[in-house]
Design a protein that fits this description.
Elements lengths: L5 E19 L8 E20 L6 E4 L2 E3 L2 H10 L5 E6 L9 H16 L6 H14 L6 H5 L4 E6 L7 E5 L5 E8 L3 H5 L2 H20 L3 H14 L5 H12 L4 E3 L4 E7 L4 H9 L4 E5 L6 E2 L1
Parallel strand pairs: 3-5
Antiparallel strand pairs: 1-2, 1-12, 2-5, 2-6, 3-4, 6-7, 8-10, 8-11, 9-10
Helix pairs in contact: 1-2, 1-3, 2-3, 6-7
The protein binds adenosine-5'-triphosphate and pantoate.
Length: about 290
Amino acid sequence: MNSHYALSARAFAPAHITGFFEVHDHADPMKKGSTGCGIVLSAGIETTVTMGEGIEETVILLNGKEVEGITSRTVVEMLTDRPVRVESTTQVPVECGLGASGAGSLGTAYALNRVLSLNLTTNKLNGIAHVAEVRNSSGLGDVAAQSLGGAVIRTSPGAPGVGSCDRIPSGESDVYCVVLGKLSTGMVLGSREAVRNINDAGKEAMKRLMVRPCMENFMRCARDFSIGANLATDEITDIIEAVEAIGGMASQAMLGNTVFAVGTESTGAELKEVLSGFGQVLHYRINPGSIRMI
Ligand SMILES: Nc1ncnc2c1ncn2[C@@H]1O[C@H](COP(=O)(O)OP(=O)(O)OP(=O)(O)O)[C@@H](O)[C@H]1O
Ligand SMILES: CC(C)(CO)[C@@H](O)C(=O)[O-]
């Protein structure tokens, strides 16, 4: 490419909330991942990749600020040795259990594929995003769910096309979130004790979900997982209990300091009101769709 012009492409990738999960280690990052269940959201991350004139080194920007962006950077390094500018704009909070790093890495892979005319298939691009997440401990199963959409049960671990998934028929239900603070996925996954607790509770949650795989049981399994794995703080437990007091169901977004609740048309307003007592309420929907070029 000559350097008198810039080429750019943009992709949207949806956010994802894991309700419960189990870590499956493997030397091959395509086979490493998690099993579990979560919901893909209507909101997500838009990522623009630009290359050409004036871009002499790779830079990653998150909402206009230069960041290390190690997961997105790994995607770039896996696809090209040319310098690129990667700009992600988030419609969801980062480091809060909404899978922002997975969405950013998917957007980077798809936009780079377009800019460089790589002609890679979706399995290949999703695999690259998954490997970047696994290598940087920023996610294990988000990419598998984000590449599918809906309420995704990850029945066996690994990259899309390697692991396997099923779905709970969910419709486009309302999802409400209250963010209490940040939590680094890498920090939690780096603790052996935390992973042991997660895996014990995650295995049990999966067994229970598969007996009756519906949204109501998913929320119950997620709630019990967050408490059983010792991840829910007192503040999170208080919010879950407040939602349960009005007949609703809430749990913790993994791995974040965030509570999420799934509502119906009849319960939505009440749910929102209860949650607003604990912080700003973010409103999304379950998204049956996936990644798209924009
Ligand atoms: N789209 C993005 N572009 C660049 N950097 C990102 C992007 N999304 C997240 N990051 C960075 O990735 C790092 C890891 O984020 P982390 O995995 O903890 O959070 P998350 O992906 O938002 O949520 P989750 O807990 O669901 O994985 C953070 O330093 C964050 O700033
Ligand atoms: C590890 C994780 C909870 C981080 O969001 C997610 O990637 C998952 O469910 O594997």
